[in-house]
Design brief:
heterodimer, A: mainly alpha, B: mainly alpha
Chain lengths: 244, 196
Amino acid sequence: MREREELSQEEFERLEAYLDGSMEQEARVEFQKLLELEPQLQNTLSELEATRNAVLAGNLQKQLDGVHQKHQAANSIAEQGNGKLWLRAAAVLALVGLGLFFLLKPDKNEQLFAEYFTPASGLPTQMGTTDNYTFQDGMVDYRSEQYNEALAKWMPLLASAPNNDTLNYYMGVGHLANKSHSKATPYLQTVTQLENSKFQQDAAWYLALAYLELGEVETAKMKLRSLIAPTVEQKALLEQLNNL
Amino acid sequence: MQQEGLISTKIGVAPNEKLALFAKNDSRTMEELYANNYRTVEKFIVRNSGEAVDAKDIFQEAIIAAWLNVKNGQFREVRSGNIEAYIVRIAKNKWLDVLRSSRFKKTVPMVSDTKAPMVEELRTEEAIQDVAYLKELYSCLDERCKAVLDRFYFEKMSMEDIAKELHLDAGSVRTAKYRCMMKLRKLHLKRQKENA
């Protein structure tokens, strides 16, 4: 390759063919060997990827601006419609009454759970013992959002370390992410009882979310009140639950 | 005529239709994504020292970051059920990043926990920073270049079809594409040097 800033049309088109996958297999293998030998070529390739991404990002931005306008307009119409219909809606609600309130309540809990729940970040992979390897292997699955696989790998480890806070914490959050909320609570409870665990407060937060989803709002509120230094988000959820 | 390109080769591994439609920036999929998640991001921002108007940029940059990662095959493990959650997570991370920035440093306490960012978070933050930069880079292109490059890279049009639309011959389109990409690359290298 020549100077970094110079690139002939032929070279450019060759790099393009590699990037878009249209390069023949044999040529591709050769090109990959060359890439390993020439860091400069790798740089040039990255530069071209960046320029292609710039075109894509600029265009998607334009498309999203249109989607945003449409979304805002639809919401505005819906709000106006809601305003005009409020009397009729109130009448319907009066007729349906308390029964409907109880029917809707679980939905509201699910909605709040979905709004507030974000799975805990996974831990970075490290080298270690055999058990640690199995844990890390599960962590790779967890980070890839393959919770079933992660839980299956972690489950046997509990036999030798039933009170391990990291293991219990990620088992609990994994079950929550997997929407098996009732299975999550025993693991999270174990962590909340471990005074010295760095996961204790986070486990209490996830436990509150689990109870919320299970419809045990009072217990969820109790868990939220137990947080030592609640974040703005955690305070907001408690406030919303108090206003239910 | 549609060219075979990045999507078909790299998203061929996409396990289902929804992710494939997202990668193809299908309008209806984007609208659904907006309808399902915009409010969640907006609420999160408002609850965390922001204003509703902040949500638009944050949410759009999150979509673009996720989209580029999916298209470029960097997040093959993202499955359809998770793409929306993935975008919301990027948006939340981005907002936390804004809160950590100088704009909020003096007045706003840290919202999130203080744990060190994990690998996933760092990767998404990097992708978000790229989006802002890429958008700025694209905005520097002249309209003539945009006409060619938009059609080729985003709309996936063939050289022949672009030539027809722009009343040029295919050879001229090919040359224009090369020259415009070189302009953009030159600008990119200049920015890199400035930031070095």
